Fold each of these.
Amino acid sequence: MADHNPDLVEDARHELGVSVAEMREANKKWQAMIRSPRARAAASRYRSVLGAPESVVRRKVGDLECEAWLWPLPLWPTLRFEVLLAPTGAVWNEWLVRAPGAEPPPLRTLDDLTPWSCTVDEAARAFAPVRPLEGSAPTRWGLAFTAPDARGARHACVAEFSWGLLQRVAVDPAP
């Protein structure tokens, strides 16, 4: 997320009381863990780092049944880190989602699409129809859609997400 919004990451680091050195060390350990030749399966890796999930729910995605593991986040109390697992235990997806029972943000115009304001699913619902776009890395997604500005003029947009959280929106200025 620091690639897109370094100031927000810096503010979050201060809010969490973590030094730059601690943040870098945590990232170094995570990268070593996921790239190790003896790396654990993704599901057990998340359990070892995050502990037991706050909740585990059955979910149906199209015709596929899966299990969703959800963890709370100190920085974002209205979000959860979600890991979707196939019946085989393989991780299908990992990203941030709105916590059960938490109200999604009102998303009506381009002004509402600020960094870290919404998840992929929330933007997709608010500005349907959308076209999913491949991200620049495994933890990144994109959506193409049209959205109105404050005056109601519609614009073509491309939203970029990291770990499921909005990072930025590129807007075609011509309505």
Amino acid sequence: MTRPSRLFRDGVTTFALLALLGLLALKMNNPPELIQTGSFYVVDGDTLARDGDRFRLLGIDAPEYRQQCRRADVDWACGEEARRALDKLMKTGAAECRGSEHDRYGRLLVTCKAGGVDINGAMVRSGMAVSYGGYAAEEAAARQAKAGLWAGEFERPRDYRREEKMGRGGDPLAGLSDYLRQFIGWDR
């Protein structure tokens, strides 16, 4: 074999080995995807529980359980309604939730399906949750249809939580730290 062809062969082999090592390093860096199937207890419009573990629906934010919204100048329990909507969706078939990352509270961030329905997207599409980085088209459709929350006035769930925290004597800078966590990505 001639020297240039041997150099070429050795270079290609070295490149292939380095690429393989790089792929293995990336694979080892990614946490494994966890799959949970079966029945879940619905805590609120975006949180599930099972066997002592909590799961947060990824990419959505639903009203807090005690949160009130306003429609046609009448208050309504939008947080309770969001919980009922999620409970109904979770019972449309065998539920399967998948995720690989946890939020700052230790909850596994999941995308759930039941009966072939993307539960996270369905909550936003029905207007019972807002998009939190992933369901913009579903939110636009709900907004246009004036579905759920969009049929009246409501406070975004994150704003409601911040005000509740401040009302209980919480840190006045809590909203800023929440924003920074979200902006920088610390809440994943």
Amino acid sequence: MTNPPPNTTDRRPGGRTARVRTQVLDAVRAELAESGHEGLTMEGVATRAGVHRATVYRRWRDVGGLLVDLIGAAGEIAWEPPDTGSLRGDLTALNREIQASLTEQPSFAVALMAASFHSEQAARAQTQLWDDRYAQCEVLVERAVRRGELPTAQRTDARNLLIAATAPVYHQLVLLRAVPDPDLPERAAAAAVLAAKAGAFSVPEDGGT
């Protein structure tokens, strides 16, 4: 459940306006990954994109506007949760995607998360993107229930399970800044599945407590 970078091949065609957006957002991504939020400027983006700075100011107004559109573009990319045939496999694959996005150099995902702490606009957009990604990933739990991998007496809270499965990867790489552990994606997934099977994430069907 990553924050994928905007990809020009995934964007909708749309003439000059779309081309300018592509150039500018690709420039924002590059500037952000290389220099972080502190080095992101409207002038730098315009220069890298080969677009007049007046155009950038007119359409995006400020750095916050650039970040919001960049996050929005990430949400436009066609992304599907893994489907490996088992809940453990799906969560492992998801964790590996996350680990890869956090360890690539430079890491756009890490830079974008850091930038969201400096812009209220970007923080709101980032929260919405995460909400959308969690909603997409609920299908992993739905498939597991249909396969009989999870208890059916009570509903499994998909979001809590997903958080438990992916949190160790974020904790290790973002908070602790530790060396990536190639075995962590599967260990974290396995632990979350065991907890889910034991009912740790179950809630009554009416949603009450």
Amino acid sequence: MTQSLIFHGNSELLEGPIFDTKNNCLYFVSIFDYLVYFYNPQTKEILSIKLDSPVSCIYIQEHKKIIVATKNGFFEIDFNTLKKKSVFKIDIDDNVRFNDGIKDPNGRYIIGTMGYPDVKKNIGQVFSYDMGQYKTIIENTTISNGLAFSLDNKWLYFIDTPTKKVAKYAYDLNTGDVQFDSYIIEFLGDGVPDGMCIDNNGMLWIAEWGGACVSQWNPVDGNKIQQLELPCTNVTSCCFDNEANLYVTTAMSASANDIYGGGLYYLELNKK
């Protein structure tokens, strides 16, 4: 594995990396800087747009055009023109903000919430938005985080970070409803699960906040396959590019030795 730091903007909390496989580019956010980033791996171009409240989750629309979740609503951003416009809202309380999310295969926007500015137990939930309507599909969460669909789209994997577990829900593609099935993975070390993604073999890759690594897990038997260490404590999320290599976001920590937290990393697992 070859590891490289490809961006460091002194961010407190980088999050939400998502790779546009059709156009070969990356998006990510700096939550408390209200910034959304576009990165072109070929040209190394980085663009950013600032919103008016904490940003969290990105949904790809087309080349250089995305929808991003902010505390004050969902905005369409066009990196071709560097313009933004409000597109829809999900009503949330003042003491929460949006966090991690995913789009289902039918185009529904799924996104969770957490306490803000203070984390409070069980005040979060996970919403599903479609065609101007939204509903709650998971209730009483604390820090709604990683979401990933199984390769056959029958299961939705979900992380509520303080549980230190990955939950498995049966997912109905027709209705967008979920049904809790079981907890499939439990973290017993220092790291707690944050964002995650799934690889082409159906294995889950999970960023470990406080664990200084990304770990790979088998969701069928719950066993850890491997872990990839990073030079910073708080690892927040990850996604694959078209070569099955990993982009990883991180956050600052209280450690004086943690000078690389808040950076974007590239982990080359498969050399060309």
